Protein 1
Amino acid sequence: MAGLESTFKNMFLVLTGVTVVATGVLASVNQLTKKTIEATDKQQQIDAIKAVLPAFDNDPVSEIYYVTDSKGDSLKVFPAKKGDAPVGLAVETFSDKGFAGNIKVMVGFDVNGTIVNYKVLQHSETPGLGSKMDDWFRTNRNSQSIIGKVPGDEGLQISKKANTEGYVDGITAATISSRAFADAVNKAYKSAYSMNDASTGATSQDEPTQKQE
């Protein structure tokens, strides 16, 4: 009986030791993975900012602030400067009105609110249709490019009204995706330029209040 109790005790000690070691290894791997993911996300963010703004020499990520739109949605704003002079804003924006749900876009504006460029960060739209938003809205054909436009108070509108101010040709057979994209861009402009003085970087809010996707 004593031998049996000794065996159980040894088994318990061994299993406890294995559990402790395994837990430590998993914790280390998780921490390492977390840091790698965070570093990758930050680099993708930096690359997106560089892709949508004029040349700058500050670190927009370290100067990030937040603005809240009329619906309470919080957007990330990255101010870009050359020396001490502002050159524009990169706004990480989104819309939940896509054909397949959420889309996320980084939109770059100069100091006058003119769209410099954009980069789609995330979407689940239909391949070959809504997915064309990656390049469609910067292609200089008909009225489909948003580059050089100022959304203004009315915002960009998806339509076939060729050469009409504020109207943009949507993606063929993907009207819902096109309108969701325009919604994200308009949200970025109205939040950053209606509630913010782009020349000073003033902001109506310092921290986000809305859930981040």
Protein 2
Amino acid sequence: MGAAALAAPVSAAPARQYYELRQYRLQSGRQSKLTNEFLGKALVPALNRLGISPVGVFHVSIGPLSPSIYVLMPAAEAATLVTAEARLGQDKQYLEAGAPFLEAPADSPALVRIESSLMIAFEGHPQLTRPPDSAGKSRVFELRTYESPSDRDHRRKVEMFNSGEYAAFARAGFWQIFYGDVVVGARLPCLTYMLGFGSLAERDDRWKAFGAAPEWKQLTGSQRFSFESIVSNVTNLILTPADYSQI
């Protein structure tokens, strides 16, 4: 029997997903109600029909530009996200269900503005991870964006995650939802990632444990990652999922 036959099969690493993260900026009252109905009854089901799943929909609980709704869309191919709007325009079920939002008149718009970023998953965390099945309705999420002063520093921060930061999060008990390197969007170079918790009180405990994790202490003590401030600004949001969120 040849060496090739004796060799153990090598499983290919999971392909890196792509993510679109949309922010729907709203005014309180009519716009919030209209947008929620559009997302839950029209957009999320239509995206699922395009193979975009699971779709996360989150309200900003703590952070700037509230009220805002964030929509997270994962896909295996970037083209699936880039062509989604054109394909939705051919979906009669979507157009009918979303008509009150899609056809809102200019003098009574459905929203203030939509902002969007396109990301590719980190090599060390190539696929979105949903919260455990035991996660209750009280679950909360933390959306963090790290801006870097240069491309070199940005790459070094991504490397830091791939060199042990995931392990520190795992040791501390975080739900690690996704890590995305932003390729199209505002405030480049930057990265965005999402963590989850059963409650805000649990979040505080997890961050304390993270700060004490040996993996984190080793990374922050390494000259490779501490030679200068490789993160120049951090944006941090606390989000709660909509009732119809799939994450």
